[in-house]
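Escalated from tier 1: manganese (II) ion holo job.
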Amino acid sequence: MRIDAHVGTGAMSQSSAELLVAFAFEAETLSRWLPEVGDEEQWKAHLVQALEREQFKAEWLKWWSTLTWGHPPAPRLVIMGMGPRGEFSLDRVRRAMGQVSQIAADLHASSLAVDVSMLETREVEGLGQAAVEGLALGGWQFAGYHREVQPPAADADRRMAADFYLGAYSAEAFRRGMARGETLAAAQNMVRDLGWTPSNRLYPQKLAEWAEKEAAPAGLEVAVLDEGRLMELGMGAILGVGQGSVHPPRMVILRYRGGGKKTLALVGKGITFDSGGISLKSSAGMEDMKYDMLGAGAVLGALRAIAAEKPAIDVIGIMAIAQNMPSGSASKPGDVLTAFNGKTIEVTNTDAEGRVVLADAVSYAVHLGADFIVETSTLTGAAIIVLGHEASALVATDDHLAEDVLAAGERMGERIWRLPIYPEYKKLYESNVADIKNAPGRDAGTITGGMIIAEFAGEVPFAHLDIAGTAWTNEGPLNKKAGATGVMVRTLTELAQRLAASSG
Ligand code: BES
Ligand code: ZN
Ligand code: MN
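Tier 2 regenerated the structure:
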């Protein structure tokens, strides 16, 4: 959906939009926002009566709506509950606006007037970002492949106009935020499309082509390493994972040149389908493994957003793309692969394929001269056991980088929880025949996954973000349907901004 967002002028009560939107907090008097939705005393009295009769309490995400019959001119009003003011956050604004977007769509309204003046925050830019971002995320829908059912109009063809009424807030700061929100939402929605697309339509070559298609208009340099090139470079790890599939692996290198002193490498796991390989997964829920490429998706989305925001830092994006399939040519448990940096990996379980493709990608990031490496992947089921679907897991070798990642996530409303690296865990992935084995036991599974990948970062500060639980959700107000979230696009984009600011 295209969002046409502006700062409203004059009084919101005079807006000619199809839908007026006001926010309300639990246990607060209506007088805080009533003036914004109309001046007529009788209309206001009716509103108050109706809200009381229907016992609207402004609980979080509970909303109330009424026709206005011409008092104010806008035909309909929605009041969105924000819960207690003490629980206010910009992420709540994002989610609430996602809900508003869907309500507007249900009511066939394509123009909104939104009063944000009662959302009290000192972060006006963040407010503009969250409001516009929520609107665009909530309005997104995956078109699907139905024959009979008319698919919804292509996302890009649908439009929503929104005027935001700011009260005393700075329009300049709010506008900066709106621009940021638009950029980030578009990148996240692109990633959500990637996550939904099934693997017969998105196998490694297709994902690489998708990245190439995104790169040009974004102003990113792009290079695709095909299987021949991967062989020449000695990337035995990703080739080993992909050798069971008729669709050979790819590695995509994206570059944004922001001209700073430092280089940040963002690395993502791009398994277009994870069947487990010879260590085959059970069938229940296996269809979900089409989203095992959302780490690579997040890297592509972040690079696109970074190229739009232009922080003063060089950023390399590396997408490690393969399809993990069982077949006569597939890697087998016990096989030993050699990664780009020469380290050997005993494959004790072909279903622990993510860390194997990332071994090549992360050591290649070192080779390309990265000063920081941040890698993200749907790496372990254990991450879902630890944190459920509420937070991504961080495993980092460097405290400063970890702090920056956590701060970026905090600022962007993406929850991240750091797990420890204790040297004792190392023995869990020792191998008798190779430098490491890819699949230790279940103990500390998310941590050992991250530590194994960190082995390939050498001395470069390294952070691993396991998004197995957060890249895909079975609920959520931003989209009525379950599905891909686009998680880490915001955090990685903000991280580039932070590192640019701190490394000059
Ligand atoms: N892609 C999976 C992890 C996953 C599970 C992502 C559920 C999203 C939802 C990964 O490749 C995998 O299979 N991991 C194994 C590792 C084990 C064999 C060491 C796991 O988590 O069981
Ligand atoms: Zn996987
Ligand atoms: Mn797997």
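The chain is about 35% helix and 20% strand.
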